[in-house]
Inverse folding.
């Protein structure tokens, strides 16, 4: 599927920002990436960076109907190239269980544009998609041999809502991922209940281990300090956020790309 000009330009701007993050801290990289006169005019009062530890965090402003989900699929490849990995773990966050299911189904479907966008970069047969309920089936080989995308909701990671979907639960299914770790509990990981000298074999700890790229759909649902602190705790690699409509007040950090007036014009 051929991207429209404004979609490709948004991805190019994201790539430029992430490239700057190789040598600059995220805030300084953002300032430099958005300092040209045209970008300053486009972003206006929306320009600004809210630090989240040392983690690159920006939003791409794609208006409703502008194809934000296809841009998100391509942004995964952009982030993978920027971090120099061929086998990224990706956490794709949605605002509801309904959208979570729809997104996972589309990403799993052969010849769907979202799926093709991923396979064009990582290769046919090297993209694995898991709904949050399927994380127990992720094997170490999956993470070593291609891109793994886990589709979840933000609510599943908010600690005050653990009962809803417990990504922090210790279980045998994920034990192989932690078997090679040296004794002790790495920084950022929760310990195992019956053995506090070992990390819990949970999906949350798996995220800490692999520092996933995070894509957030409709990021205005994630602007609370609790949500951002939860993401920071995963210690993830660069993340991209895709709000449903331009609004400076609905993003945790400023945009690095924004259309002039419509999704067809930049």
């Amino acid at each position: 599927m051929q991207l429209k000009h404004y979609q490709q330009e948004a991805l190019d701007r994201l790539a430029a920002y992430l490239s700057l993050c190789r040598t600059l801290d995220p805030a300084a990289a953002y300032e430099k990436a958005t300092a040209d006169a045209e970008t300053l005019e486009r972003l206006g009062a929306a320009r600004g960076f809210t630090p989240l530890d040392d983690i690159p965090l920006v939003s791409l402003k794609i208006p409703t109907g502008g194809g934000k989900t296809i841009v998100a699929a391509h942004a995964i490849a952009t982030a993978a190239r920027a971090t120099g990995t061929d086998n990224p773990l990706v956490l794709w966050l949605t605002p509801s269980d309904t959208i979570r299911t729809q997104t996972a189904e589309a990403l799993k479907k052969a010849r769907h544009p979202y799926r093709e966008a991923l396979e064009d970069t990582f290769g046919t047969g090297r993209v694995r998609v898991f709904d949050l309920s399927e994380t127990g089936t992720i094997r170490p080989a999956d993470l070593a041999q291609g891109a793994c995308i886990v589709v979840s909701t933000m609510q599943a990671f908010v600690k005050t809502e653990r009962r809803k979907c417990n990504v922090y639960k210790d279980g045998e299914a994920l034990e192989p991922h932690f078997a090679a770790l040296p004794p002790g509990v790495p920084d950022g990981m929760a310990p195992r209940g019956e053995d506090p000298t070992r990390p819990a074999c949970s999906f949350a700890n798996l995220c800490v281990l692999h520092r996933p790229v995070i894509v957030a759909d409709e990021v205005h649902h994630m602007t609370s300090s609790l949500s951002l602190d939860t993401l920071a705790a995963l210690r993830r690699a660069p993340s991209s956020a895709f709000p449903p409509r331009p609004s400076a007040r609905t993003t945790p950090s400023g945009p690095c790309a924004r259309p002039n007036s419509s999704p067809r014009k930049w």
Notes: Residues 243-252, 259-266 have pLDDT under 50 and may be disordered. The first helix runs from residue 5 to 20. The beta strands are 57-60, 89-94, 127-131, 147-153, 213-217, 239-242, 255-257. The domain at 5-257 is CATH 3.40.50 (Rossmann fold).
